[in-house]
Predict the structure of Glycosyl hydrolase.
Amino acid sequence: MDNLNYGIVGNCKSAALISKDGSIDWLCLPKFDSSSVFGRLLDDEKGGHMAILPEKLNESKQFYLPRTNILCTRFECEDGIFEVHDFMPRYENQKEKYYSPPDIIRYFKHITGNPSFRIVYDPRLEYAEFETKTIVNDGYVKSNTTKGPYDSLYLYTSFDKQKLVAGEVLHLPEDQFVLVSYNQKLLRQDVKRAYLKLMRTQVYWLNWSERTTRFKEYNDEINRSALTLKLLSYEKTGAVLAALTTSLPETIGEERNWDYRFCWIRDASMVVRIMTGLGHLSLTQHYLDFIISLLPEKDERIQIMYGISGEKKLSEKVLKHLKGYEGSCPVRIGNAAYKQKQNDIYGILVDVVYQQFKLFPASLEYSEELWTLVRNVVKMVERNWQKPDKGIWEFRNESRHFTFSKVLCWVAVDRAVKVGNLLKQEELFTEWERLRDRIRDSILKNAWSEEKQSFTQSYGSEDLDASVLLMESYGFVQASDPRFKSTVLAVQRELEHDGLMYRYKNEDDFGEPQSAFTICSFWLVNSLYKTGYKEEARERFNRLLSYSNHLGLFSEDLDFKTKRMLGNFPQAYSHLAMIESAITISEGELSLEEIIREAIK
């Protein structure tokens, strides 16, 4: 595996990663955070997969059907040509809002000839910890665990089931299908039904893409990233995942391997802010409903992250039987970071609430719920802003007074004042404004380095950090402020390497970082453009786009030398930053708020 050359298909309940040559190497059912049924991504021997192996292949290529999340792998062989259209069904249904079962369908479309191939069907349920037994029945193929927690999987197909499971040669004189489901199907599955699901799913994604705001440039790239972010949203609750995978390493052979199949308040709120600007307003509403549902008590602490169904305890466990992506272990499920304190989440959350109040009408009951949330967050900020925390990058051992956390505490109070103004609730303004000013004065006094001529990573430190580039985006400083201009140049000078950005270069819990953090390179593009270095920003942005995979997808990290993608994939953070940079360069001086207003019109 020399790169993360995978496509993602999904239906807002779960998703799969399919390799460039058509192998399903990652799939968890029935939900994103369930145990894997195909996990070759994390162990190429034990993990399990479902591959298509043509007998006489000349070449293959992979692409998405335009403006959809339907992935097409085209096989051109000596004995014929065929395409496999992979998708997870999602479309409107009369009985329920959407039909989105825990199924993946592989529709084999005949193009020419009578191509021959084998299918390797090798499910390994429950993270491949125990043996999976597969038996061919009259109407379907059933796989189930023989030890440990019971789990099962069903396969329906128009191919000869015995030959398929045995890995014997199959032929394709006409269209065929394979359906893999977590559930036993109640209706007869055939090619006609599979085709109908394909067409309905295609219509759903085309309609969704049509609602996406269009810009002067980069519309294809923006739409692909938006479609990817949509796939990382969990329809049942409104949660937004940080990424689809677990334990893909930031650097091959290292142990910075984490489970990202959860909802980080910071990441999700940033995604929602961007998706609002793209015209997808229901996602914002759904996400805020999710947040409100998590806070039943007024004094309850907001965690930095939650399970996609609202779980508050995300205990971390190591799967010792899996060797990891290219031998990078440990493989982890769960994430102990849920216990951390990160004060930046307050500002990012209230910023989303402010956007909601400013741009959309809301019912009295809903407004009261959000206003209660805002007031509670300000109380939390007042209690915590002077305390150290773990910061945006989740330092596991050391707490510091991180500049970004302080800035976002300022944002929380600033947006709270603005929300109160919109709601004509002025009784707390004087107190809140004083708090806002105290936080601002503290940052300007303690986070600025005369030596570096830059805002630094934390109070009293000379280390620089890419996160301070967001000070302008959140309105703490103006792009024209000499301190911000100087900060941008200092951060670029110290953290850029081979055209890519470190998050920071100082040692953390695992030593010095070795890879580039993709989102930071996009943050630099944004900051350069806004401080007047427009041509340089455009050139860097176009170069960054070339570092995506063959389908325009980004992971969390990039290798400085080879530009190989690393880290969990596809990464919501990276795609939202790509969209924001594309909009900045495309729309020039327009603010995100102005773009959102235009999208609503």
About this structure: The CA atoms of residues 276 and 407 lie 23 Å apart.
